[in-house]
Amino acid sequence: MNKESGAKWRQEQVEISHFYTNKDILRLINETEHTVTHDLEFGDRQKAMKRLRVPPLGEKQSPWTTFKVGLYLGCLIVLLVAIFISATFEKNTNIKQAFRLYRGPFLIIEFLFLMGINVYGWRSSGVNHVLIFELDPRKHVTEQHLFEIAGILGVVCALSILGYLYSDALSIPAYINPLSLVILFTLLMINPIKIFYFEARFWLLRIIWRMACAPFYYVGFADFWLADQLNSLVTVLLDAHYLICFYIYNNNWYQTSDVKFNVEEYFISKMIVNCIPAWIRFAQCIRRYRDTGETFPHLANAGKYSTTFFVVFARALLKKTKNNYADSYDNPFFFFWIICSVISSIYTYTWDVKMDWGLFNNNSGEYTFLREEIVYDNTGYYYFAIVEDLVIRLLWVPQYILTSNGIISTEMANSLVSPLEVFRRFVWNFFRLENEHLNNCGKFRAVRDISIAPIDFSDSAQIVRMMDEDMSVTNRRKRKLLPTKKSLKEDKLQLVTDQNSYSLDLTE
């Protein structure tokens, strides 16, 4: 470049500007590095830089963890095949009872596995879940860790089921197996020893405690997000309630074929357990209203969760009075339940797509029925989620038709619908985090915008190494290529200011 117009413009316009001449940021950075190096790390600059720098979201995964995930999933597949074959030919075992006792652990394992896919999707698409959940950037579980946890628990659960099926051959009480499994899951969760993802477990326990104490704690994003997950895992709570009642009432743990137990005897407690997740979110919304003073969306959101109370109450009354009427259509509580269920389904679905996901935005532009900004590259994901959420929200309709006509039992219907509800929440998670990332719709951050570009680990790692070395970069002059005729026309840059216009020709 022979002309000096560009260099002159830079000197006259850029190098005299305040943002260029002001060195306060650099001074603060140097002072911080100096303080941490000398006062906290006793002169060890390498340790100081490691403490100061946050690892990138796209950090490399451990090959050892990858191997363990593959090993556990492979073992789980083999064990599931063995369970299927054993259950097919085992005639003396109460399979129906096994379904009920093992359904809760299975849903937890499914949830953890799908959460791993959620984390992978967020990370690869640039949704900064670490910032949104206020996690420690240096110590947080990745999708590999979640897959590993799901794999371990899945293998243990499968072994417990096989122990249940072959309890007679092993000469052990059949019902000691599901109880031992639940106790093991609980001990792994509350274990105070710093193993098995100690930081993540106690982060989760802190959030659960804050949820249990709602509305007496300030509500953060992780608090209400986990409470929303619990609303999709309400079957896990109901199965835990069933398990407790079962082991209190049933004294014979050996005979799997002769169980005389009916959970409907615990009618009131079951109804209360069914309302716990909705109550937590209801209380959190009230607390958010108290803290912000905003009627909308917090009181409106509380109203959404209150519809669950009416649905549960109406359903309980319908079951309690069904023997008093020859036809369910003669029962006034049937219509009460239908009205409550329809209102709840419409309310929750509308809130999902409009408020939680921010879709059907008037300024959607080229993304019809979506919103102005989207993160995921395929718009088909969004349209699928819109339809899928509606279908699963309305599954109570075919569920009632099938059970009321005796085609399938109520528990079998619940066993089919519950995993689908966990899947619905899995899809919901993608778009709820995306909306929070783009628009700060929950107002949990001080600023609206954060970077959405996925971070390439190889580039960021190279930059970190270069920053640690004083003379790590050497610029070598490369062989000059002769410009083509096409490049002669394209290499003109027009620099425009308020008063002057400069034409900078790069080829002269």
Short précis:
By secondary structure, this protein is mainly alpha-helical. It is built from 21 helices and 2 strands. The chain is globular and about 95 Å long.
Write the layout of secondary structure elements.
Layout (H helix, E strand, L loop, with lengths): L4 H10 L3 H4 L2 H17 L4 H8 L10 H27 L5 H31 L3 H4 L10 H23 L1 H4 L5 H15 L7 H15 L8 H12 L1 H16 L17 H26 L2 H26 L11 H25 L23 H14 L2 H9 L5 H30 L17 H12 L16 H6 L1 E5 L4 E5 L3
Antiparallel strand pairs: 1-2
Helix pairs in contact: 3-4, 5-8, 6-8, 6-10, 6-13, 6-19, 8-10, 11-12, 12-14, 13-14, 14-15, 15-16, 16-17, 17-19, 18-19
GO molecular function: inositol hexakisphosphate binding
Protein name: Xenotropic and polytropic retrovirus receptor 1
Pfam family, one: EXS
Rg over C-alpha atoms, rounded to the nearest angstrom:
30 Å
Read across the widest sheet, the strand sequence of neighbours is 1-2
Question: What shape does the CA trace take?
Answer: globular
For the biggest sheet, the summary is: 2 strands, antiparallel
Q: Structural class, from helix and strand content?
A: mainly alpha
H/E element sequence: HHHHHHHHHHHHHHHHHHHHHEE
Task: Report how far apart the termini are.
Answer: 7 Å
Total number of β-strand segments? 2
The proportion of strand residues reads under 5%
**Rounded average pLDDT:** 83
Low-confidence stretches: 452-458, 470-508
Subcellular location: Membrane
Keywords: Membrane, Receptor, Transmembrane, Transmembrane helix
Organism: Schizaphis graminum (Green bug aphid)
Pfam families: EXS
